Amino acid sequence: MVRLRFYGGIEGFIGGNQVVLEDDSATLLLDFGLNYRLWSSYFEFIFSEPESLDEVIRVGLAPDLPIIDSIDACIISHAHTDHWRLITILPEGSRILLGECAYRIIDGWSKRVRRRTLLYRTSHLRFDTFRTGSTIRIGEIEVKPISVDHSIPGAYGFQIYTPSGLIAYTGDFRLHGRFKPKIDLCNGLEDRVSLLICEGTNIGRLVEPTSESDVATRASSIVERCRGLVIVDIAPADIDRLNTMIEVAYRAGREVVCSDRIIDTVIDLSPDRSLKVPRIGEDIKPFEEVEDSCTRNPERYMLVTCLYSEREVRRIKPPPGSVYLLSCSEPFEEEREIAFNRLLNWLHTFGVSIYHVHSSGHIYPLDIRRIVERIKPKAVAAIHTEYPDAFRYLLSDLVKVYTFRRGDEHRI
Ligand SMILES: [Zn+2]
C-alpha cells in the first residue's frame, strides 16, 4: 500500500508543492516549496522572519515535526522557490535529490546570501544530483526523473514506480516552450498510471495561448519601432526568455545589458554544457560596465532586468518613446505588486510605453486534456492551481480528479 499525503500546492494555492509519498520501505517528499501567499500572511523576508521551526509549522507552511523527521529523501522538481525553499528547514544530513541545474542555482544562491538563519541554510544538507536517464531507488520505490520544459532550465517531472502502482508527477511544465525534451514524460505511460499528479496553474485563468516564438515575434515588432531604451523584465532564471530577447535585440541592432541578478544566474549556469547559456561580454554585458554608454545612447541598448526593479531605470533616465516589456507573469502577491507599481510609476514619469509580452511557463488547459486522453491514468490529483473545482470539471468526462485539503491521504 502506498500512501500520499498532500501538504502544499493545494486548497487553491499556486506553488508551495509538498507531497509526502510513503510505503513500508521509504518516505519521500516530492518538492518542499514555500507557499508565498501563506508566508506573507505571517512573515516578511528580512523584516519579520520565523523565529523557529515551530513557527513555520504552526502557521501551516510545513507538515508536523514527526513527518519532517520521517523523510528519507526529498526530491526537487526545479529551482523555483515555491518548489524547494523549505529544504532549508530539514534536519541535519537530509538527502536532497535534484537536477544538476537546480543544484547550481540553489548552490549559487546559498553562496551569495549572507544570512544563515532558518530559511537560508543549505550546508547541513546532502545534495545528490540526477539527470534524465537516472534511476533513483529508495526502499522499494524507484523514481525516474524526466526533463520537462518550464520557465527555468533543468525542470523535471517524475515517473515513480511503487509496488502498488505507477505514479506520475508533472512538477511545473508546458508543451509550448522552446525546449523539446528528448524523452517525453508521458512516454510508455499509456494505460499504466495509477495516479497522475498534475499541475493546473492555467486552469480557470484568462489564458493568452502564446508560445515562446510568439514572444519573439511580438517583442521584435515593438523593439523595431522603438527609438529610445528598451527595458525587458524577465523571471531571474528564465534562460530561454533571455535567449529569445538576445535574438530580438540582435535583429534590431541593439546590445543586451543585464542587471546583477540575471548575471548571477548566468554565472551559476555557465558550466552546464548541455544548456545554451549566454556568454558574458559577448551576448550580454553587465549593467555596471556599460551604464554610462547606456545613459548617453539608450537607443543602442536593451536592458534586461528582473523582479520589477526600478533601480537601473532611474539611473539611466530613459528618454520619452522608450519601451518596457513585462516578459514574465504579473505580480501575484502583495509585496511584488507594490514593487511592480513603484516601477510603473517611475516608467510613467519618463514617458515609457508599457507592454506585456509573455508566454506562460505552465501548460495550457487543453494540453492537459490531451495528455490525459493519451495516457489514460486511473486518476488525477489536482495540484498547483487556484481553481481545483475547475480542474475537476475540465476532465470530468475523462477521469476522476481528486482535490485535497491539507494533510489529506490518498492510497494506491
Ligand atoms: Zn511552481
Number of strands: 20
Show unreliable segments.
Answer: none
Strand content: 15-25%
Strand order of the largest sheet: 6-5-4-3-2-1-20
CATH level-four homologous superfamily name of the largest domain: Ribonuclease Z/Hydroxyacylglutathione hydrolase-like
Present as ligands are:
zinc ion
Our measurement of the CA-to-CA distance between the termini, rounded to an integer number of angstroms, reads: 6 Å
**What Rg do the Cα atoms give?**
22 Å
Q: Roughly how much helix do the residues carry, as a percent range?
A: 25-40%
| CATH classification class of the largest domain | Alpha Beta
Count of separate structural domains: 2
Question: Could you describe the largest sheet, including whether it forms a barrel?
Answer: 7 strands, mixed
Which structural class is indicated by helix and strand composition? Answer: alpha/beta
The shape is: globular
Average pLDDT works out at 95
Give the topology, please:
Layout: E1 3-8, E2 18-22, E3 27-32, H1 36-42, H2 53-58, H3 65-69, E4 73-75, H4 81-84, E5 95-99, H5 100-112, E6 126-130, E7 136-138, E8 141-148, E9 155-162, E10 165-169, E11 193-199, H6 212-223, E12 230-234, H7 239-251, E13 255-258, H8 260-269, E14 285-286, H9 287-296, E15 301-306, H10 311-316, E16 323-326, H11 334-349, E17 353-356, H12 365-375, E18 379-383, H13 388-394, E19 400-402, E20 409-411
Parallel strand pairs: 3-4, 4-5, 5-6, 10-11, 11-18, 12-15, 12-16, 13-14, 13-15, 16-17, 18-19
Antiparallel strand pairs: 1-2, 1-20, 2-3, 7-8, 8-9, 9-10
Helix pairs in contact: 5-8, 6-7
Zinc ion (ZN) binds next to helix 4.
